[in-house]
Structures are given as C-alpha cells and as structure tokens.
Amino acid sequence: MSLNPPIIRPDLARATIPRERREGQPTIGMVSLGCPKALVDSERILTRLRAEGYAISPDYAGADAVIVNTCGFLDSAKAESLQAIGEALQENGRVIVTGCLGAEPEYITGAHPKVLAVTGPHQYESVLDAVHDAAPPSPDPFIDLLPATGVSLTPRHYSYLKISEGCNHKCKFCIIPDMRGKLVSRPAHAIVREAEKLVQAGVKELLIISQDTSAYGVDRKFETERGHRAHITDLARDLGSLEAWVRLHYVYPYPHVRDLIPLMADGLILPYLDIPFQHAHPDTLKRMARPAAAARTLDEIAAWRAVCPDISLRSTFIVGYPGETEAEFQTLLDWLDEAQLDRVGAFQYENVAGARANDLPDHVAPDVKQDRFDRFMEKAQAISEAKLAAKVGQRIEVIVDEVDADGATCRTKADAPEIDGNLFIDEGFEVLKPGDIVTVTVDEAGEYDLWGRL
Fold first, then answer.
1. CA 102 to CA 84: how far, in whole Å?
2. Which residue ranges form the domains of the chain, and what is each CATH number?
3. 280-322: per-residue pLDDT in tens?
C-alpha cells in the first residue's frame, strides 16, 4: 500500500498557521517525527508557544529556531531523527531537539554537537525554556490570542486525543517505558472537556491514543472525579455521547475489552479496534514477554464478532524475532488465516539500543526475515482483498478527508487516517468538502482501497 502524501503524514508533520507575522514577533518552526502520540506532544508545545506570542513558521528560513520532535523507538527511526536534525541545522542552524530520542542526549550531541538544547519526551517546560533562550518571547496581549482548541497539526475535521502517557508492560523488544515512564492516566473529566472543545470547534472524529489504552485509569484506581470515571469503558461511553466518530487505538486484549463491544454495536463508538498482537506462537510471545494466549485471543475475536459483526480489527506483528523458527512463523500464518483480521501491518525485527531482546540467542538472518515478511504480507494482502471485495454493492458511511480536481479521498469506519485504506469518489464529488460524513455505494475494491459513488 502506498504511503499517504507527506503533507498529511503525522511522522512528517510541519506546523502551518495561516496568519501573518507581526513586526518583531519571534518565530519558531517545528518538525514532528514518529507516532501520533508524539504529534500530540508537538501540538501542545506549539499551543504553549502561540499563547506566549510566538509565530509558527512553515519553513526553516522564516524561523528564529526550529524544534525537532524525534522518534527513538527503532534504530531506523533514530537514523531518520538524526537526519532530520542535520537537515534543520543545515537549513536554519538553530535547533532544539525533544521527543523520545531526547532521552539519549549524548547520542544526539555526538552526531550533532551544535544543537542548542536536548530535552526528553513530554518535557514541555524544558522545551519552552530552551526556546526562550534561543528567541526570547515578545507577546502582545492585544494580538496574540489563541483559539480554545490550540494549534493542530492534523486536518481540522479529526484530532488525536491522548488519554495517558507511559506503559507498565515490560516487552523485551521495547524501550518505551524507559523513555516515557510508567502509565500515567489523565483525569477523565479533563479528557472529556478537551474532547468537547474539539467537537465544538468542528472536529468530526476523535482518535483515542496512548501506549496502552486498555489500561487507562489503572494508576488512578478507576477513580470518579467531577462525574467521570477513569475507566476505558466509561470514558468511551462519555466520548461517544459527543456525536463524533470515536476510534480506539493501541488496545491490549484484556478481558474487560469485551465490555467495549456493545458500545460499538450500539453505534456509540466506531466498530474498530487497533490491537498490537505482535505474534501468535506461545513460545515467541513468551520470549517477547507478552501474554501467551493466542488461542484464547481467537475465542475473544469470535465473541466480539458475535456481538458486533461489523467490527474491524487491525494489528501489527513482528516477524523474525530472535529464536523464531519456521514452525513458529507458520503458526503465525495459520493464526492469521483463522483470525481474518481486517487491517494488518508487520515489521521485521531489529535491535533497539537498551532493549532486552538484543541479548536473546538465535537471531534470525536478514534474508530469512525478509522472506517471512514477504510471505506474511502476501497472506495479509489476500485477506484484505477478499474482505474489501465483499463490500462491493454495500452502502456505507464515509468521512471526507480531501477533495481535489480528481476526486474525493474518504475513509470508512474501518479506516484510520494514515495507516489504513481509503475510499475514493471520482464522480459527483464537487459538492463535498473535508469533514463531510456521507453515505456511498461501493462500486469497486482493490487490495487495500475502495471506490464508490454518492
């Protein structure tokens, strides 16, 4: 499946604020790499800076300094982050680094000693201090007024809503808990209030994100405060009452997830679950330090579909994990055949500095990893193609993301922005605009995308 255009990819987001710069106003640029959770951090930083009187530059040349929000999850992501920092230094020269890779300041300064400052993930105050040093604020209280929704790096009709930070899992391939700490859930009333403001500002779809959405509220002992309980089921019900699409990401398949399915069947939240299964063989899962319950997971999936037949399931998997045998990989293929997931992605395992998986024996050869990745994606693609073909002739609701001279690019309830498929309308689309939710008849299906008419 081809990548979305860079202008709407979260991992290549650059802030653009349609506003003239006043005389003497300090200006900051932002490059945001990595996952949607990092994108939310970038939006918060820019919102704070706008409130202090800074303008936001869409390019390097117009900025007094540039913030690069980095990703440090995989070695390939680290390399991309270093490249982005180098580009910002070359084009602007005054660069502040933050984000996950900021947890390793020596790694950054070793490659780029001229950066102005390095801060870790979600260290907003430290980023602001660094910006103040690089370009002191000069606010004008009569001009620098910020809308209640703050600065957004996504199209105005959808928004990521982060409900917690950190993670209590100890997966051997992951260093996110080391970078972002243990689970810290936001108060439920604060999340609902933020969601209300977003919907009032025109947001039609709320994408709920965290490191572990299912665990939301555990650290707060599921407390009730100001009429809202800090539990994912209660939170989903509260958000569903706002009459926007509510899409859940990063949901671990704990038993209480089954309580969310009736909310989907009733149309309160979207019938969509993004679940990081990672693998299916119990021995592989054990080496990953993941729950080894693949068979019971199949039972859970069957139970979910019995309650909500329209549910769409997406997941990601790791192929070529240390010690993965051909038999273990075949188990994964067989499991995928039975699970029939709607949206599937895969990664070839790679070492991450500081991860415990690096020390495991029997690392898989690169050519074997590539072969398994190709075989896995071939099967996933065939499943996707068959599932989409079954939608031809159906009438479904879609949300419009973009309209240009060639047609409208839309998404179904089964498609999250940037990571899933699209539905394209190439006739009669002139009346549409981004954010519209309309009903279409599906005319044609491909491997990952659909085509339809109003």
1. 14
2. 6-134 (3.40.50.12160), 154-276 (3.30.750.210), 395-453 (2.40.50.140)
3. 999 999 999 986 565 588 999 999 999 999 999 999 999 999 9
| Residue where the block lists tokens 């679950």 | 273
Q: Which two tokens stand for residue 454?
A: 């109003």
307: Cβ contacts below 8 Å, ≥ 6 apart: 258, 261, 262, 265
Instruction: Specify binding-site residues for [4Fe-4S] cluster.
Output: 35, 71, 100, 167, 171, 174
Q: How far apart are CA 383 and CA 408, in angstroms?
A: 26
Question: Burial letters for 355-384: b for 16+ Cβ neighbours within 10 Å, e otherwise?
Answer: bebeebeebbeeeebeebbeebbeebeebb
- Residue list for the binding site: 35, 71, 100, 167, 171, 174
pTM metric for this prediction: 0.77
Closest CA to 376 of 308, 279, 294: 279
- Give how far Cα 108 sits from Cα of 28, 94, 96, 99, Å: 21, 15, 11, 12
